[in-house]
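Run log // design_07
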């Protein structure tokens, strides 16, 4: 039931109506409301919040949703029904029928974002059902729509999920490509938490392929990125991977340092899965140092936590190591109990590597206790899985070569790109220098023109001054001439008056002549 309720987080992504989810104490509170689209939204919210997994409850909502042609609610209802089938019946035919109905109504909403999230959620659901091909198909649809919507957050998320799906499918190159796209986008939008997970995923791929140098580089970048935002889970995970990479390189002191730091962080945030893994890794480190009592102590503490979180793979692996240490200490009876349990659980969950290791150690225990028929049986099982492990190693080597070629091609492409960029930069630099040269010449020409204009201005000013001086002189001379002329005229007039005064008058002359 706990698993079912945790998956109901997916359903909340389908409740994309206008207002927020309201909490109700009982279904009766909702039933008192008018049965309309608001009522539908509230009932769906109630059902998802309280984890109602009874199909009749959801079937009863369909007629009302159909009445109001509420396609988004119909899509949500059919998604829940497909979810219930996935977790209860696991009937693939029924599941696909309900899933197709959910997608059909999501398309009828004509809301690309709603449809994209619908595909995205079905990708999650089919991944949990181990339907890898279907999960890839749904994620491709979601990725296409989120790309059209330019939603970088979900484009990155889809690529991260595709990376994991292709990795589970054994397509390492595609997995690396998708993780790299996710990393680039998460870095662009400053989602450093998810970017750190991308780096850890890429580092894990390279580590599993035996490329420890690249793996270490990715793990250290992941730690730095998580540290930047104080994301302790990411920091602890990165430290653990750095520790086990050092362990693979037989650098035990460095491995111990990083594993202890990782354990402290996991314990601080009480992340039990991480605590179990790091205790297991510290036990492995002590086993490599042949400190068997201390190693057993770590393995037993780890297996307690693994039982708490129902980690079957972890339990099987720890049982193998505990059994192996008891075998090395010649406690054959105790060793056989642990190894038999480890083999049974490994066969049950399909854990080839642990089957291979456990069967070999069991054959040694059986030989030591003279149980030769059982020893032969386990040795045959060991050889059977040894071949599959050898094939896996061969495939890994082949993939490593492909990855190396990809890197070489990328490096060559990068070098060509850099050379082209250098040519472009040189051309731009030359153009800039030419622009500077012509700008300098233009500046000089402007300066010369300015000097010429200034000189002409000064000459004009001087000429103007000279003209004004000449004009003033002419005016002065004019005034002088006019003054002289006035004096002459005045003298003439004065002389005329004197002359007139001395000469006899015309009357006198006429009188004198007549006499």
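design_07 sequence
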């Amino acid at each position: 039931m706990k698993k079912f309720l945790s998956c109901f987080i997916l359903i909340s992504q389908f409740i994309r109506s206008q207002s927020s989810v309201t909490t109700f104490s009982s279904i009766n509170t909702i039933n008192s409301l008018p049965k309309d689209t608001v009522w539908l939204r509230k009932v769906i919210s109630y059902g998802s919040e309280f984890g109602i997994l009874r199909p009749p409850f959801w079937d009863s909502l369909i007629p009302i949703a159909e009445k109001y042609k509420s396609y988004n609610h119909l899509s949500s209802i059919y998604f829940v029904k497909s979810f219930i089938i996935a977790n209860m019946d696991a009937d693939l035919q029924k599941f696909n029928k309900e899933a197709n109905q959910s997608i059909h109504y999501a398309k009828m909403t004509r809301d690309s974002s709603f449809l994209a999230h619908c595909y995205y959620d079905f990708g999650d659901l089919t991944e949990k059902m181990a339907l890898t091909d279907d999960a890839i198909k749904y994620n491709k649809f979601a990725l296409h729509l989120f790309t059209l919507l330019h939603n970088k957050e979900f484009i990155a998320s889809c690529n991260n999920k595709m990376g994991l799906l292709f990795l589970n499918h054994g397509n390492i190159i595609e997995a690396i490509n998708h993780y790299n796209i996710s990393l680039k986008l998460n870095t662009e939008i400053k989602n450093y938490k998810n970017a750190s997970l991308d780096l850890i995923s890429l580092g894990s791929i390279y580590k599993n392929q035996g490329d420890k140098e690249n793996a270490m580089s990715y793990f250290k970048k992941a730690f730095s990125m998580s540290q930047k935002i104080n994301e302790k889970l990411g920091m602890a995970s990165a430290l653990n991977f750095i520790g086990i990479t050092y362990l693979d390189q037989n650098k035990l002191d460095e491995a111990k340092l990083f594993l202890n730091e990782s354990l402290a962080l996991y314990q601080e945030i009480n992340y039990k899965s991480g605590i179990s893994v790091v205790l297991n890794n510290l036990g492995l480190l002590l086993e490599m140092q042949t400190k068997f009592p201390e190693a057993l102590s770590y393995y037993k503490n780890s297996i307690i936590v693994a039982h708490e979180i129902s980690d079957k793979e972890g339990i099987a692996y720890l049982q193998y190591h505990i059994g192996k240490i008891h075998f090395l200490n010649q406690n054959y009876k105790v060793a056989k109990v642990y190894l038999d349990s480890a083999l049974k659980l490994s066969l049950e969950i399909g854990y080839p590597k642990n089957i291979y290791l456990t069967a070999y150690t069991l054959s040694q225990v059986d030989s030591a206790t003279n149980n030769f028929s059982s020893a032969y049986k386990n040795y045959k099982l060991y050889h059977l899985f040894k071949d599959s492990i050898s094939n896996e190693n061969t495939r890994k080597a082949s993939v490593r070569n492909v990855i190396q070629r990809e890197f070489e091609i990328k490096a060559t492409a990068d070098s060509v790109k850099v050379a082209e960029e250098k040519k472009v930069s040189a051309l731009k630099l030359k153009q800039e220098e030419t622009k500077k040269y012509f700008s300098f010449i233009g500046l000089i020409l402007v300066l010369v023109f300015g000097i010429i204009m200034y000189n002409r201005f000064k000459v004009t000013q001087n000429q103007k001054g000279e003209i004004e001086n000449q004009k003033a002189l002419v005016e002065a001379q004019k005034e002088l001439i006019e003054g002289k002329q006035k004096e002459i005229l005045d003298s003439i007039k004065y002389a005329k008056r004197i002359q007139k005064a001395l000469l006899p008058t015309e009357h006198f002359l006429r009188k004198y002549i007549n006499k």
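Residues 27 and 46 are 8 Å apart (CA to CA).
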